Amino acid sequence: MALEDTHLDVLQNIEFAIASVYRERGDLLDYHVMRALDALIDVYRAESRGHIPKPFHLPEVESIIAQRVQEICEFRLGRTELTAGNHAARAEIKTAAEIVSCLRKIRKSVDRWNSRGGKQGYLQLIDEYAK
Fold it and tell me: Is pLDDT of 87 > 60?
């Protein structure tokens, strides 16, 4: 079964977080998303292997993306709650390895759409769907 079939909700959550930054910062580039995702892949890959993740240092815009995506990842790992109004959101708990798979899937999508659509090809694509 494809990753999109088993973890579509996680993929959508992550892409919504990325799209929210793009809507605030129209100068955002796919490259910024790539670097933020790479940092988070390293964090959760280390965790899934039982290692202590290395801290990452990113420029401001990449750090904002990483922070928003990490909030989603932590929620999906069952470590934090997200609130919408007065209601706490609940979701199926995922493993760090599943989070890494989702982050990698999105990272590949960024590469693909960047090569097809230019510097903001991926961002323009998800902006249409992540509303």
Answer: no
